[in-house]
Write a structure and sequence with these properties.
The chain contains six helices and 20 strands. It is α+β, with helices and mostly antiparallel strands and 361 residues long. It starts with a helix and ends in a 16-residue tail after the last helix.
């Protein structure tokens, strides 16, 4: 090989080596370090995440903000700190610690959108800007996140395109990172799940209407009956049975502090009494054109649990402890329930009436 060939080969090797040098994506003041492909995207981040106090995930059309309270729990910043699932935060932090650079990609800004790495200020863009800060506002980790690459064939690991804000170097990083901006994907959405077998009576009272009560004689009763049914009233049994079932699998679409709806318009309330002494009241108010439910729980001594009661019916001690736990959990909050559940809580007597029989002619 000629001397010129040797020099050209050496230059090529130097270029390849330079291409393997990555920018370390720590959140500290702008700095770069030599980090070979295969190294963590955020070196040493696991220890620093213990000091994390805020997490922000921004998209062009949405922002999720999480804050950490003094007791260590994480919550939705724009919903009064409503608690988020601890496992989701642990999963996010574990993903940050395990993310590794595996390949450098384009440095041409005109091609960033193909990787989903355009700036989050670009209208219609799909990128996400993830920022984690400590209590003093110092950045612990920050990166623009792009498209995921998932290959099921060969059981290959998931990867994601990544870029540091303000820089033109892009990378493919191996690892899983769930960064949803929908706050409802971060919370436990179940409000209540009280089985109908426990419900002895349920009353719906829409504002401006007469209250309507249905009762169940025993926990094993298959059907409820309307109390004080008017003469000649033809009940729709399905609607009557809907009311004592209303607390089963009750979930919400949104949440806010109860104080935020204090000035709302009273819309009605539903009251429930169980065979084991648990009592529940769901007060419905309308604010900002949405119906919000405020949940309160109590307990009345019904005596010892009867022999042969189904497992859904609890002992007095269990029911009392449940009422206290439900009060602690729900008293601070107002829930926008799924609409059909709210409709049941506000049933009127006329809603429970069966349609007139069809004229055979």
């Amino acid at each position: 090989m000629t001397r010129r060939g040797v020099l050209m080969l050496g230059a090529g090797a130097a270029i390849v080596a330079a291409g393997a040098v990555a920018v370390v994506m720590t959140g500290e003041t702008t700095r770069t370090e030599a980090a070979l492909i295969g190294q963590p995207v955020f070196p040493g981040v696991a220890a620093r995440l213990a000091e994390a106090r805020t997490v922000e995930i921004r998209k062009a059309d949405a922002t999720l903000s999480l804050t950490r309270a003094e007791d260590g729990t994480w919550g939705l910043a724009d919903r009064g700190g409503f608690p988020v699932r601890a496992d989701r935060v642990r999963e996010l932090f574990a993903g940050l610690g395990e993310l590794r650079l595996i390949e450098e990609r384009t440095g041409n800004p005109e091609l960033f959108s193909r990787l989903g790495l355009e700036d989050v200020t670009v209208a219609g863009g799909t990128s996400q800007l993830l920022t984690v800060k400590d209590g003093q506002g110092r950045v612990i980790a920050e990166a623009i996140l792009g498209r995921r690459r998932i290959r099921t064939a060969g059981n290959l690991p998931e990867a994601i395109y990544i870029r540091r804000p303000g820089e033109n170097r892009t990378f493919l990083a191996e690892g899983q990172l769930r960064t949803d901006t929908d706050p409802m994907l971060w919370v436990e959405r179940e409000v209540l799940d009280i089985k109908r077998q426990r419900i002895a009576s349920a009353t719906a009272h829409r504002a401006g209407e007469d209250a309507v009560t249905v009762v169940r004689d025993t926990p094993a009763a298959e059907q409820a009956t309307m109390a004080d049914m008017p003469e000649g009233f033809r009940p729709d049994q399905g609607k009557i049975d809907d009311l004592p079932r209303a607390l089963e699998w009750m979930t919400f679409n949104d949440v806010r502090p109860a104080a935020a709806v204090a000035a709302g318009t009273p819309t009605g309330e539903a009251r429930f009494a169980s065979f084991d002494g648990l009592t529940l009241t769901l007060r419905i108010v309308t604010a900002d054109d949405k119906r919000w439910a405020l949940v309160s729980a109590g307990w009345e001594d019904k005596g010892p649990r009867s022999e042969g009661a189904p497992p859904e019916v609890r002992t007095p001690e269990e029911a009392r402890a449940e009422a206290e736990a439900l009060t602690r959990r729900h008293a601070p909050w107002a829930y926008q329930l799924v609409d059909w559940k709210t409709d049941i809580l506000l049933l009127r007597r006329e809603d429970m009436q069966a349609p007139p029989p069809r004229d055979p002619s």
